[in-house]
Amino acid sequence: MGIARRRQKVAKVSTFAHRDITTIKLTKRFFMAYRHLLHMEHGISCPSHSHFEVCGTGCPATCYSFSSPVDCEKSCTEGCYCDSGFLLSGDECVPISQCGCVFRERYYKKWEKFYPEGQCKDQCQCGEFGAVQCQAVTCGPNEECRVVNGVHGCHSTGQGTCVISGSSHYISFDGLTYNFYGTCSYVLAEVCSGDLHLGNFSIVVENENVGNSNKTVTRSVKVNVYGYVIAMERGMQWKVKVNEEINVVPLILEKGKIRINQEGNSIILQTDFDLMVLYDAMFSARLTIPGAYRSAICGLCGDFNGQSNDDFRRPSGELSANVEEFGASWKTNWEGHDCVDGRKEPHNGCNPITGAIFGRDEECGQLLIENGPFMECNKLVNATDYFNHCLYDMCAHHGQEQTVCGSLQAYATACQSSGAKMKPWRTPDFCPLSCPDNSHYEVCTRTCDITCASITTPSSCSDRCFEGCECDPGYVFDGDRCVTMDRCGCMYNGRYLSLGASLVIPDCLQRCSCENGGVVMCSNFSCSDTEFCGLQNGNRGCFEKQGTCLLSLQGNLTSFDNLSGPVAHVDTFELASVCNLTSDVWFRLVVITQQCRSEDGFRVSALHAYFPNVSISINPNGEAWVNGHAVELPAQVSSSLSVSSVKGALVINSGTDMELVMSESGELTLHVSPELTGALCGACGNFNRQISDDLQGARGKPAATFSEFIASWQACDFSRCEPLKIRAV
Question: Angle at Cα 437 formed by Cα 501 and Cα 469, nearest 5°?
């Protein structure tokens, strides 16, 4: 018995896809022809394994009846009907072998769990061949037997909410408010009890600094559930990453157990066990869990036991002495960027004069105005916490308008998540919200209900409205843009594809494209001998097997497997080497960076390349040395090794194994053969197509930060002079 349950649904034939789309009074034959024309013209699509019919039977065959009644008295209707060999099971067409069960004259989908009695004393499950198995159960200590959203079963009593807003302000499940300024990745909440009936999940928040300021913001929220890692990233609306692959929302995973939608400004992830994660991709994140998780949770959100005085509990179970120690204890093992996890508060708050300025009704004071836009919300959500956060952030960031906008937006999200009504608070001159073409701003809109996907797929939107952009009449959302219905795309295996878009399945053996009318066409697909099947920049496809590592003019290094980070202005480190001793190929590349004058930025001063019995040195001035001797270019060092000048850039070429290019400005680009996959080491990584292990240091130990990683690859056989200290005269 568990709190993770599918919704109990009886097949509703009349709601499958039958919609009235005109009120014009026409003869029946002309009316049907007109509707068929609209279908063809506007591309009304049907779900998988179904098709459109102008005049289909009014009593279609379902898994409940297995055939259409002979004495059906309903007139024919237009709509979507299951293909031959498929029957209607609830809201989807399935093969006959996947039909569910009829139990006490009610239909249940295959593998669906349900409670046939009113007191939830027995839980049954529909299995193979229509067989139903039942067992005695009792609801958990924080559950009660009732009907929620039409589903009868054991449901949690109450819920817990944890919030992150602004510059790392946290409110725990038990109401503890604190500030934490770590810029690493941390466990926000995870199941840490051994209760197997609870749906398992883990949520990680990744923080970062904005620019060169001390402002800490949420970079991403990652939800690990049902074997998926779903990342909602800052600045990325209408999209999420699922196991590193970019998906457009709405998105349905694990046969409906995970549903992700855009609602107003926010992306909302919901599971079948009532976990909900909301992230506005900019200023705030909100996590809601059912009451059944009381005392079963740990992380930055606390333990959800109703007592806020023990929320600073570390993974060991011990209480932390301060918030810095508490936050650092929940740091995750892997970091893709430089971070600090134990920072003290970057400033001392507001002085009375500054606080009075930013607390005015025109600024943070809007939250507290008695008859203001948030008046009705103040009864449900504590405005004082958000007001204090707003003041703190405004003083820390010198009164930037974006800061007060973010604070008010965070409170607006909290209000509408709680079901409170809200008046307009944005104006064309104060915190305006930019909307795409053919849309406009609304203070209370149900974005999720007005999408191309909602035309054919049962919606799973929350029961709240949120502020955000709403498509103009006659338009619906197609990802982050508004289009007319004839430009709508397709739903394919729970994923939405815009018209003309395509996806490649994980093994790269098929590519499926969305065509007119919501039709998805799949064709055979394969990678060439010089390509591999994988992900790059969130997109799946075939990519060149050749590896590329880049050290940019700004001092940013991108590894073969696309991990990136900064390199120190003064350093000597191993760029790349062949570390597989069984390889027939060997080379070693050492980079020297220097800062000759205090006003200089990043600069590559030299690169040393080592091959069996040969060394080559080059610099951005176009000079080259072989075994310590200056050479004229081009120079053929051996039958397969050369150094040359091409359009001002120096190129070291070692047959088909390696090519290094140094531009006149010092930018380095290294290309390596696919034959060296997994055989390399150094700052450019191991070239194994896996970004997750690219922070492997020189001694085999994962580094905590990118800077620590680069430092581990320092070339120990080189002496490095420190920058000169100019003595004051």
Answer: 95
**Amino acid (one-letter) located at 536:** Q
The confidence score (pLDDT) of residue 400 equals 85
- Segments in the chain below pLDDT 50: 1-43, 721-729
Tokens 């998805």 appear where?
Answer: 520
Find, among 255, 217, 243, the residue nearest to 493 by Cα: 255
**What is the tens place of the pLDDT at every residue in 236-295?**
999 999 998 999 999 999 988 999 999 999 999 999 899 999 999 888 999 999 998 999
Beta strand pairing status for 216-225 and 228-233? antiparallel
CB 446 within 8 A of CB 465: yes
- The separation between CA 374 and the C-alpha centre of its own chain, rounded to angstroms, equals 30
Question: What distance in Å separates the CA atoms of residue 331 and residue 188, rounded to the nearest whole number?
Answer: 10
- CA-based angle 69:74:78, to the nearest 5? 105
Q: What is the pLDDT of residue 19?
A: 33
Counting every residue written for the chain, the total comes to: 729
Distance CA(363)–CA(397), nearest Å, equals 14
Cα(551)–Cα(565) distance, integer angstroms = 10
- Residue 326, CB-side half-sphere exposure with 13 Å CA sphere: 22
Token pair belonging to 320: 């932390």
Rounded CA separation 362/368 (Å): 11
The one-character DSSP state at 486 is G
Give, for 102, the enclosing helix (H) or strand (E): strand 101-103
String of b and e for 156-187 (b: at least 16 CB within 10 Å)?
beeebbbbbbbbbbbbbbbbbbbbbbbbbbbb
For 60, other C-beta atoms within 10 Å of its C-beta total 23
Tens-place pLDDT, residues 332-385: 865 555 677 766 665 566 788 888 999 999 999 999 998 899 999 988 999 999
Buried b (16+ CB within 10 A) or exposed e, 413-444: bbbbbeebebeebbeeeeeebebeebbebbbb
What are the DSSP calls for 248-308, one per residue? ESSEEEGGGTEEEEEETTEEEEEETT--EEEE-SSSEEEEEEEGGGTT-EESTT---SS-G
What CA–CA distances, in Å, run from 288 to 161, 173, 275, 390?
4, 9, 6, 23
Q: Which DSSP letter does residue 534 get?
A: E
Class of domain 1-139: mainly beta
Amino acid identity, residue 720?
A: R
Tell the burial category of 267 from Cβ atoms under 10 Å away from its Cβ (0-12, 13-18, 19+). Answer: buried
State how far the Cα of 602 lies from the Cα of 593, in Å rounded to an integer.
Answer: 7
For every residue of 645-713, DSSP letters joined together read EETTEEEEEETTTEEEEE-TT--EEEEE-GGGTT-EESTT---SS-GGGTTB-TTSPBPSSHHHHHHHT
Sheet containing 490-492, strands listed edge to edge, beginning at the edge strand earlier in sequence: 177-179, 169-171, 159-165, 284-290, 276-279, 266-271, 258-263, 251-253, 495-497, 490-492
Tokens of 430: 């104060």
